[in-house]
Amino acid sequence: MLLNELSDGAEIDQVLLVREAERRQRRDGGDYLRLQLGDRTGVLACMVWEELAEVEELACAGSPVRVRGRYTVHPRFGPQINLRGLEPAEPGTFSIDDLLDGPVRAVEQMEREIRELIATIQEPHLGLLLERVFGEDSELWQCYREAPAAKYYHQAYRHGLLEHTLSVAQAVSAAANFFPGIDRDVAVTGALLHDIGKTVAYNDDPLAIDLTDAGRLQGEIPLGYYTVRREIEEIPDFDPALAQAVLHIILSHHGSLEHGSPVVPATREAVLVHMIDNLGGRLGSFDRLERQLPAGESWSSFDRALSGSAYFGQRHAA
């Protein structure tokens, strides 16, 4: 059974993917191990109190493991697994597709749509910049196509960056028509490039998504800024005003200093991209929570990305 099909008290004997394994300290001074075990529908916490060294060796991030235990819904801590046994997953006893989440739409369809959107850009310098990044022979494109959009909260899976960025750029393109003063070409270009730093900030292992050393030490926004700036510098006579406008969108797209942007949005285009990006991330969290929701439930547990719980009652009424 998939995790979102389990009910309170259900017995578990199946292969799950270790998303995280973290040793923590107990109140009495000893250690315990907190595992995050998941499949394509969600993730559950699992505490290990004994034989920690043996479990750590077996249950490293990215490893499929056979889990035996009971699914319970704790009144305070939410759904979790009461573990009885853990062992290596035997080849042939599971499908990796059941363990990995992914985009709803086909990757080939999203590729077509992103190229159709790029073809609408009229400004020649911006068109050249996007061709350098998204051209089929571009090394950047190969990384962009595979990268996740996040580690946890939204589109945290292979091709997630493509899915997230396409939805943001399409929404920015549509919204630009309804607000006077918006330079649509600049706004759409900024939307397509705003998260490009994630191609460097995250690793390329879909089984165990994590930040790279560069991602931890520099952050995805500076990495994105320098990536796009290098590409701009390779284009002869690139308009400095256009470069400044696009780079400002990248630097400000988190919206505030406390959320990691070195500057706040100061142009119409930057405000539009930030708002749509924030909307896309939050709605992506709803998608994640709905996939994880146990059968028959209407409310998710508390979610940090939303600062609250999500309600899905309307899906039962339909």
Tell me the distance between the termini: 24 Å
Low-confidence blocks of residues: none
**Helix-strand pattern, N to C?**
EEEHEEHHHHHHHHHHHH
Number of strands: 5
* Proportion of residues in extended strands: 15-25%
Instruction: Give the strand order of the largest sheet, numbering strands 1, 2, ... along the chain.
Output: 1-2-3-5-4
Mean pLDDT metric: 90
The profile of the biggest β sheet is: 5 strands, mixed, barrel
Q: Structural class, please?
A: alpha+beta
User: Considering DSSP H and I runs of 4 or more, what fraction of the residues is helical?
Assistant: 40-55%
Basic shape: elongated
Q: Radius of gyration from the CA trace?
A: 22 Å
Oligomer: single chain
Give a description of the structure.
- This protein is an alpha+beta fold and 318 residues long.
- 42% of the residues lie in helices and 17% in strands.
- The chain contains 13 helices and 5 strands.
- The protein has a 5-stranded mixed beta barrel.
- A hairpin with a 2-residue loop joins strand 2 (31-39) and strand 3 (42-48).
- Helix 7 (184-193) crosses helix 12 (268-292).
- The longest helix is centred in the C-terminal third of the chain and has 25 residues, at 268-292.
- 35% of the residues are buried.
Per-chain topology:
Blueprint: E1 11-25, E2 31-39, E3 42-48, H1 52-58, E4 64-74, E5 78-88, H2 96-99, H3 107-118, H4 124-134, H5 139-146, H6 160-175, H7 184-193, H8 198-201, H9 213-218, H10 220-233, H11 240-252, H12 268-292, H13 313-317
Parallel strand pairs: 3-5
Antiparallel strand pairs: 1-2, 1-4, 2-3, 4-5
